[in-house]
Amino acid sequence: MTNNNLNKLLAFCVLFCAQKTSIVHALETKVALLLHAEPEIPKCFAEGLSDLTCFWEEDEERAGSADQYSFRYTYQNENSSECAVTALPAAGGKRLYFCRLSQTPCFVPLDIRVFRDDLLIHNRSLFIELVFLLDPPANLTLTSTGTQGQLKASWLPPSLKYMGDSMMYEVSYAMAGSHIGKVEEVQASSELILRGLQSGTKYKVRIRIKLDGISYSGYWSAWTDPVLMETMPGDLDPLIVSLSLIISLVLTLLSLIVLMSHRRFLLKKIWPIIPTPESKFQGLFKVYGGDFQEWLGHSTGGLWLRPAYFYSEEFPAPLEVLSEVSLGPALPSSALPPKASEALGEEEDEDKKLKRVDSALMEGWRETPQEHWPMDQLRAIHQHPAPWTQSSLLESHDAYVTLNAQNHSGEEPLDDILEETLPLQVLFASGRTSSESRSDLGSFQQSSGSGCLSSQSSFEYPNHTWPPKGPGYTYMAVADSGVSMDYSPISSNKIDDIGKGVIYTNEYKNEIPAHRRPIGTPIHFAF
Amino acid sequence: MELSPRLFTLLLMLLEWTRPGLPSPLRPICDLRVLKHFIEEARDAQAAMLTCKEGCGLPEPVTVPQTKVDFSVWERKNALEQAHEVQSGLWLLNQAIGSLRASVTNTALHSHIDNSLINIFRIGKVLRSLNIQECTPPAGEVSRGEETWRVSSASELLQVHVNFLRGKLQLLLSNAPVCH
């Protein structure tokens, strides 16, 4: 029994102490709040309908005992009364003096006077219903509303009669860990739905209370302890998904429309068209299957003159370059004698062709004034048989080409010609050896087409051992300016002399050799 | 003779339409924002009176109701007593502010005082809507010790006006049975 009683007493004491501690703690909080919010002295606050607590603070060194102070108060139209003053120590070397009134009426002015040793130190007039400092709302709870981004905060309002409609709440909410939050006010309510929150995020919420100031007024209460709650996790809103799909579809359609409207431009950039010469050669591929000789023979509009450098590579007849003669002045860009080029490109009877070539060339030489240049040069060489290397006219990379009146392979398929592995192979002297030239000739001979002309190159014969072919052969001097080639016949007796010189072969492979040939170096063809 | 029943019927119908009697009851005004509006205008009048220096005095002291509310005492009173207390107080205020209107020469205050008088009239209508009957003190009974007191300045009078509206009237309206 004694133990039981002792236990009960102990529990009571503990509870009492705890309550006292909490009361003291609450009082301390309110005191701190008022010291900050209220400028007048004494600072007074009401916690309920019929109480009033007033206090003031003094520095420790100037403070007197509690009985030195007297707290006198007077309601309107009433006699004054006095309140007992109590003192409590405070932080920061201060002392607090309290006076607590009960049974306090409202809506009537109250005059307060504080005396210290009969000396008035503080004076204040107030309305008690205008200095309410309530306790924070209790039981703050957060619940989910079932909707994303929302939380419902609910609390228990203070149980004060007549003031329910006057209570105003301030709800502060922020993401856990963040100091930046939002505040919402609500009046005369005990719950609030917080909207616009992030999904799947923890929020901390707290609340405080104040009276609205019409009939009753006061100070903001202390904040409640924060309550944490996580919002619902994010979910794919079907509306958002469908809208996203529609938008992506619209964007895709727009991009397709743009692409289609600019397809030509894009195709040109991504897949450039390989130019074909078909447009320039009407009917060459469609009608004649690429047979250039036949096309030349049947081409309408007469002689379609092309620059000499273009035709010179497409000689079906084998052609060997004997030497190149560099001329001082640039050669004119005159085309081959048109008859000559036409003749050389034909696949007719070999004799006829040869004669025609012969005559055409002769005619051409007579026509063009430049024809004399190679001849003049060769005459000069003949007259002055100086070493080639010392010749001012003929340079070391001179070459001579012989045209043979032989049908190497008349049955050569047209494909060879179509493939344009031309019989004419000319190699430039610079950097090339005779052995190279020989191999080129080999390939050259294989690819000789059905032309009625054959040729040999002076490169076959190194060390200047070019054998003259005899009276049956006609030699042509070819002057290549890099733009055009001029042909001039060389008499065989003169070739003997020329044969002693350095002989080179050049290779043509259906390309305009101008870019591979040193400009200004003529090529002499001898046949 | 045959026409008389028809005439009688017609007459009854006409009387039914023009039936004399009490007007239909007002819809109860329970929204306290109305009272909030009256209180704010009374505060404006009090603030304006404080700035007045001349031509804003009462010729003689007037009787005004007590504004003090002791909640424990108020709760002990029944609804009728509370209603009577509020209605008589309003009547006194009406009288006092009426006399103030007659004596104030400052034209700037006239609008405020007129507003206060109109608001007292409107409050009466609100009370009627809540089935709170008017109650005027019997003739001759000007002052009743505990419930009234006398003021001699216009500012005091208007302060009493504000406090009365904030206190007793508000308590009465917020606890009207019709609104709960």
Automatic annotation (TrEMBL), chain A:
This is Erythropoietin receptor. Belongs to the type I cytokine receptor family. Type 1 subfamily. The chain crosses the membrane at residues 239-259. SUPFAM superfamilies: Fibronectin type III. Residues 1-26 form the signal peptide. Gene3D superfamilies: Immunoglobulins (2.60.40.10). GO terms for molecular function: cytokine receptor activity. The gene is LOC120038293. Pfam families: EpoR_lig-bind, fn3. Residues 434-456 are annotated as: Disordered. It comes from Salvelinus namaycush (Lake trout).
TrEMBL record, chain B:
It comes from the Eukaryota. Keywords: Disulfide bond, Erythrocyte maturation, Hormone, Secreted, Signal. Residues 1-23 form the signal peptide. GO terms for biological process: erythrocyte maturation; nucleate erythrocyte development. Pfam families: EPO_TPO (PF00758). GO terms for cellular component: extracellular space. Disulfide bonds join 30-179, 52-56. The keyword Cell inner membrane does not apply. InterPro entries: 4_helix_cytokine-like_core (IPR009079), EPO_TPO (IPR001323), Erythroptn (IPR003013). It is found in: Secreted. One of its GO terms (molecular function) is erythropoietin receptor binding. The keyword Glycoprotein does not apply. Belongs to the EPO/TPO family. Erythropoietin is the principal hormone involved in the regulation of erythrocyte differentiation and the maintenance of a physiological level of circulating erythrocyte mass. This is Erythropoietin. The gene is LOC120030352.
